[in-house]
């Protein structure tokens, strides 16, 4: 198995050892041991649900400080479509883009611009690869990671085209090098991200060997810095936006699929719904569909844990912004096509296997079933694991013991107490 990078981490001093996170985690990647949560990094898909649910703010995402801009001679901001939905009463995307330049960026490059190119590439791929239907979107890194570790039979259905943010990074760097004459290492390409999964995708790229993104800022941090600049930029707005309805639509769920000019698609958002769709897809319930768009966050990228606005309010704002825009401002050309396809295969990562081979796995699964029969089946979480089965698996893996179950421990204490009472009565 490969090395795993996780952008979600635990602030141990804030953790109170409650079980909110272990119950919410979709891949059961969190345990509570010795009064503190612990994230198993190979299970984690960086969906950010633990950040969203933790009442003590003990979970956080790794991202860069705005100071990273000072490390480069020329800095380009990559703006995600979901970013525009964070601002109230915004009627012109150029206000946001101009404010970013006032903030200190030398140039801005819209991810929505490349989203329109990816939409065209996807339409072409669907027409040429009917045997791959239904094709699954790869724009959400959390979904791809989830398929890698839990749904290996669906890997062949993944769309082998780079995410818009990766294409945007490549073309933003080319543009900056051409306009400035600077070498690549003097140019910083900085993405303003709505979620921790995008941070992980930069450190551990999907489908490509290396990412052209040099740093990732959180939308929630940039938002507070940007507001004063937006107020001061209204009278000096530059014409910087180069994206249309299709590109901006990618910011919310259904936007990517809606750009394919077909009704033969399914779009789902929210990690529980995504898992439900993938389960059904593995059972071959969606054979007649061409395309499946899946977003781990409710509402799509506007629902990421690094955003500031209610995702459904943000979606409404994006709809309003799109009304005055052309359908698309960007179309395919030969140069852009060469950078678009995946160059690295996405492979199954059997992180949940509990044995080293088939015989070992069967023996250990038998032991898991025996333990589950002993446990009460309440899935109370008091043991620090989300379910009785996950505790049994932990025991078989050697990272937990039967006494971690308070019901088993209580029965043991009662038996011990009864035995001591009988010994006292004999004496």
Blueprint (SSEs and pairs):
Blueprint: E1 8-10, H1 20-24, E2 30-33, E3 36-39, H2 49-53, E4 59-61, E5 74-79, H3 93-103, E6 107-110, H4 111-128, E7 135-136, H5 141-150, H6 164-180, E8 187-193, H7 196-203, E9 215-218, H8 219-233, H9 245-249, H10 255-258, E10 265-269, H11 271-282, E11 291-295, H12 311-322, H13 334-338, H14 358-374, H15 388-397, H16 406-426
Parallel strand pairs: 5-6, 5-8, 7-11, 8-9, 10-11
Antiparallel strand pairs: 1-4, 2-3
Helix pairs in contact: 3-8, 4-6, 14-15
Question: How would you briefly describe this protein structure?
Answer:
The chain has 16 helices and eleven strands. The chain has 427 residues and is α/β, with parallel strands linked by helices.
């Amino acid at each position: 198995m490969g090395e795993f990078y996780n952008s979600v981490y635990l602030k141990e001093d804030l953790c109170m050892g409650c079980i909110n996170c272990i119950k919410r985690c979709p891949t059961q990647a969190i345990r509570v041991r010795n009064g503190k949560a612990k994230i198993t990094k190979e299970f984690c898909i960086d969906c950010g649900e633990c950040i969203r649910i933790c009442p003590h703010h003990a979970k956080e995402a790794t991202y860069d400080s705005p100071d990273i801009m000072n490390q480069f001679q020329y800095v380009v901001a990559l703006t995600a479509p979901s970013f525009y939905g964070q601002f109230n009463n915004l009627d012109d995307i150029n206000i946001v883009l101009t404010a970013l330049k006032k903030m200190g960026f030398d140039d801005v490059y819209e991810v929505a611009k490349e989203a329109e190119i990816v939409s065209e590439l996807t339409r072409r791929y669907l027409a040429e690869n009917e045997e791959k239907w239904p094709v699954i979107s790869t724009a959400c890194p959390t979904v791809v990671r989830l398929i890698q570790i839990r749904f290996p039979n669906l890997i062949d259905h993944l769309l082998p085209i780079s995410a818009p943010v990766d294409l945007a990074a490549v073309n933003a760097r080319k543009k900056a090098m051409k306009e400035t004459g600077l070498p690549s290492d003097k140019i910083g390409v900085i993405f303003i991200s709505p979620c921790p999964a995008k941070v992980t995708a930069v450190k551990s790229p999907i489908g490509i060997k290396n990412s052209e993104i040099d740093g990732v800022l959180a939308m929630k941090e940039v938002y507070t810095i940007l507001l004063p600049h937006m107020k001061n930029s209204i009278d000096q707005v530059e014409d910087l936006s180069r994206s249309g309805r299709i590109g901006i639509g990618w910011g919310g769920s259904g936007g990517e699929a809606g750009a394919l000019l077909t009704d033969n698609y399914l779009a789902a958002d929210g990690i529980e719904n995504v898992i439900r769709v993938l389960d059904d897809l593995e059972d071959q319930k969606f054979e007649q569909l061409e395309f499946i768009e899946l977003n781990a966050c409710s509402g799509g990228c506007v629902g990421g844990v690094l955003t500031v606005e209610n995702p459904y309010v943000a979606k409404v704002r994006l709809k309003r912004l799109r009304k005055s825009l052309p359908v698309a401002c960007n179309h395919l050309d030969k140069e852009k096509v060469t950078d678009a396809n995946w160059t690295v295969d996405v492979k199954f990562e059997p992180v949940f296997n509990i044995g080293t081979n088939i015989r070992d796995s069967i023996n250990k699964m038998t032991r898991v079933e025996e333990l589950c029969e002993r446990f009460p089946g309440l899935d109370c979480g008091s043991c620090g694991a989300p379910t009785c089965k996950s505790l049994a698996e932990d025991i078989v893996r050697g990272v937990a013991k039967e006494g971690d179950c308070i019901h088993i421990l209580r029965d043991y204490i009662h038996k011990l107490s009864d035995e001591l009472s009988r010994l006292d009565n004999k004496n």
